[in-house]
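Kindly draft a polypeptide, keeping tokens residue-aligned:

***
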Amino acid sequence: MGRRASDQDKIYRKMGEGTFGQVLECWDRERKEMVAIKIVRAVNKYSDAAMIEIDVLQKLARNDATGKHCVQIRNWFDYRNHICIVCEKLGPSLYDFLRKTAYRPFPIDLVRELGEQLLESVAFMHGLKLIHTDLKPENILLVSSEDAKLAENKDGSFSKKVPKSSAIKLIDFGSTAYDHQDCSYIVSTRHYRAPEVILGHGWSYPCDIWSIGCILVELCSGETLFQTHENLEHLAMMERVLGPLPRHMLERADHHAQKYIRRGRLNWPEGATTRESMRAVLKLPRLQNLVMQHVDHSAGDLIGLLQGLLAYEPSARLTAQEALSHRFFRRHRERRSL
């Protein structure tokens, strides 16, 4: 166990807040560095998740000497029943960066750099038999807070902000699962949730890969791919963007998900609850069109990669390691080495 609360000398500001509690930026006078302290609400389920997170962070640190992939834990302590996790201080999340720049899409070369690191970090976790289960732009932090301006026109008349450094690290391991755990419960934040999770098939490593596919689309379009709060609408959106769900996957739906299926296909639009819901699905473009609206060069390679990350059948989805060998990354690496 770590040190007492008083050893963290001075609180500078609140960095973030969530259902779990809050994150404070503090000066650690022993290490003489700024740190982020996650202070968890004194509620059993959040305390339990915090203990899982500490266990995972320590395992990651033991296996990642350079601290390249995931946020580094410094120590932890219990302060009046609040679990407090002390970590290195990083920059803003990809979500915060997008929000502060009015959800302007990232340039494709930056998406490639972020995607490569994200897949490397997930391949590293999967190699340790860990499944993150809650990958989303909020849980991917830029290492640095600095940004740079990128001229958009030839004369530089219009510029947009991009991160100065593309280095990122994963955070939030409170939902991380070991691959031998029970995998029947619901995981992932709604918009990044894989079809096998919604259909109640159980899940494993591929659920992280689906989330990465959704994240990459969001980074190059500036918008959440599946902006929905309801299961049937979510599945209908998937079909709109990616084509029909395989019949055998629908037929294997558990008793909770059977109400979304009729005669071996999705009960849509018949089962839609509102007109707005039907409109929300109809306005979505096909994956190829969506990418080509936002990406100038490398669009074909990116579409190919996304089709592999967003394959409906988990066993047909690329692994993180396979995705890293995809030509979307490989061609770029070859150009760099010339």
